[in-house]
Input
Amino acid sequence: MKLVLKNLDIKGLALETCSYSMPSPEANCVYSDFHVLSSQNNTMILIYFIWKYINDLSKQFNREKSWPAVLVGVIIYLAGNFLGGIIIGVGCLMMDINIDEVNDTLINLMAWPVGILVTVLYYQYLKKKWASEYVDPELALDDIGAESEVD
Output
């Protein structure tokens, strides 16, 4: 006879499965981590969307190279996320909250809005800057030669 017990640890996001066999009282336990709410997976998803939106914006304004802007966008997101973590840490110190007992994934989720906010601000900056520098090729064809005409 075999008995299988599963222990779900919500705080650590882990699952422990133990199987007990009747002849021997020893248990064979397997400890596995959940990566559903992992901060690394979610950060990779956000980095994908940063790449996608900045790449689409560069195509809209006929930019040849979008990777420098994407790289700066990812760095700005990570810096904003770091800044959000610092804000949370200082806030916990000021309110005398013990941050050691809080899950790291939860702290990262709480820091996301700052990272996302600075990335959206960077996107809006790029959109405004590139729109001011953009020359529509179809409209520019009409203006060719008009400037060089002398009265």
Summary: DSSP finds four helices and three strands in the chain. The CA atoms of residues 78 and 112 lie 9 Å apart.
